[in-house]
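Changelog entry: the Thiol:disulfide interchange protein record was regenerated in this release. Current contents:
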Amino acid sequence: MKRWMAILPLAALLGFGVLGAVQLMRPPEESFTAKTDRVAPDRVFPLLDDENRTIGFAPPPGDKPVMVNLFASWCAPCRAEHADITRLARAHPGQVYGLAYKDAPEATREFLAELGNPFVEIGVDRSGQGGLDFGLTGVPETFVISPEGKIILHVRGVLDEQRAAEVSAALAG
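Regenerated C-alpha cells:
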C-alpha cells in the first residue's frame, strides 16, 4: 500500500509532463479574427504629423465604422500586410486609421515613405499603454470600431485576403 502512495505523485507529475509536451508541440495559432462587443479605449493619441492635435476612437471620427491598425516600422509582419491595408483604404476611403505602436516617429515616417501611407490619420502610442488598452497582444493587430465606439471586430496577426474581406464587410456596415 505504501508503494502505491509513493507512485501516485510520480504518476501525476508524469501526466502533467505529457500534457505540457502536447501543448508545446501544438502549432501556435498565429492569427485569429474575433467579433467582440468591447468599448474602444477612452484615450487620445497625438498625431504623427502634428503632436499638437490628437485622435481618439471612443467614439471614432465620422459616422461610419473605422479600422484602426496597430503597427510599427520594426515589425516584419506589419510590412507584409501593408498591401492589404492599402487595398482596404482604397475600398473604404476615410475609414482606415493607423496607430504607431512603440515606434520612433522618424522610423514610422520612413516606413510610410517607403511603402506608402494608406491611413487617414496616424496616432502615436510611444509608451504602448494605448495598445494594451485596446487589448493588443502584439503588432500587427487590427480593430474595427463602430460609430458608437464599440470594437466590433478584432484581428490578431497579419491581415491576409480572408481577414481583409472580414474587415471590409465590417467597414461596410
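Residues 31-172 form a domain with the Glutaredoxin fold (CATH 3.40.30.10).
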